[in-house]
Amino acid sequence: xxxxxxxxxxxxxxxxxxxxxxxxxxxxxxxxxxxxxxxxxxxxxxxxxxxxxxxxxxxxxxxxxxxxxxxxxxxxxxxxxxxxxxxxxxxxxxxxxxxxxxxxxxxxxxxxxxxxx
Length: 117
Description:
Layout: E1 5-6, H1 10-23, H2 27-41, E2 59-60, H3 61-65, H4 69-79, H5 85-100, H6 109-115
Antiparallel strand pairs: 1-2
């Protein structure tokens, strides 16, 4: 379903790296949390808005999604049944971008953990 190699927008990638520097949470783990935060709050991606992926951190989907791969792909396919695999990858990246706003400003791991409980 999702392509084997996935990446994000540069600005989102930078936020993930800044969060790692402050909390120690790796970008792939933070991206998973951000994705599900976005889904929980009801964000809906519109492929006609021209969302462009520009980041340099290209990882395989198993690294990005880990054990959440199946549920992530099912959620995307359910929410966007008419999207191609490439469009689903862009939708995933947009959800990560939307959800990172909820967790990007934590200054330490303790605050971050309390925010996701």
